[in-house]
Protein: Amidohydrolase
Amino acid sequence: MSQLQEKIKALAKEQSAQVIAHRRHLHSNPELSFEEFKTAGYVAQQLRAIGLDPQEGFAGTGVVAIIEGRNAESRTVGLRADMDALPILEANDVPYKSLVPGVMHACGHDVHTSSLLGTARILHQLKDEFDGTIKLVFQPAEEKAPGGASLMIKEGVLENPRPASMVGQHVAPNIPVGKIGFREGMYMASTDELYLTVKGKGGHAAAPHQLVDPVLMASHIIVALQQIISRNRNPANPAVLSFGRFIADGVTNVIPDEVTIQGTWRCMDEVWRAEGLGKMKKLAEGIAESMGGSCVFDIVHGYPFLKNHPELTRRIRTAATQYMGAENIVDLDLWMAGEDFAFYSQVVDSCFYRLGTRNEARGIVSGVHTPTFDIDESALEISTGLMSWLAIAELAS
Ligand SMILES: [Zn+2]
Ligand SMILES: [Zn+2]
Structure:
């Protein structure tokens, strides 16, 4: 096995300039969620150049390719990359700066895609040295509901062949380049959007007795809903309820007819996710009614919570330790953001890990979803080789 590891490291080093070129091409030519047409074309073209036969058009712009090793039927591992960019104007002054005004790879999906292209090349070159099948999944629209992953699954990406496990990575601007982060079990949150319309009867602020004040009702609702977190939630069960928009469009002496509120509900348990929503709706409607008004409580369901299968994650972490050295493996905290890789994790054993991309000495410290996000590109040589090794190790497990 260690001989194979040396081979992978040599191949990753040999092709690192090419993978960086892929990344820079994608970074310069970002496309928004569900619009990744040129990106998908580029991915398919590169996969064909490697000698693979990609299947295009999954969920619109998704691309899937298969690498068969020896005894291809024995076991399949799926490797996933997302391809979409964000509606952000890039502020970096770099040679590979976005050529599309207002669109930027600010979440590192260019890194995930180019890295998986590199991994594909390595695994294809080594296909006579491992048993099983690798399924490469390049998916659209991680950043936009309902999420490319959910559509890819509906269109059968987890069938024919069905992966025994799915593995994905994400850049981590808070982790130094050269290090990899893992967490077993619950890792990222489900994301549901809440849209409340609190209705009353507006009028002159000097005559409250003639009105049904939606501002006061909405205020009570906001305060009361937090008791879902403090009194109804099992304290061992992480959850967040935040309201970022509260519009009462009156003036000092005019009370409006209605107030709109928008917020987000995040947790790490699918049963509690639904229960919490039910309680919130009942509470908000009940408060409005008891005060003489009404509340329309709309929910837009987002991604489920992301669970890293414990045994799989332990195996992957062990393999990563072999490849990187124990000193380069770090523990991840819970992170209440959403990620559509979670859809795979609800269906098959899955592991989602973090690739360190920070380089403080070079000023590469900006967070994802910011106009100055960038990575230390030496992370790409690590990520291509590492994911190749993890896939082969998992096939052999
Ligand atoms: Zn993102
Ligand atoms: Zn992302």
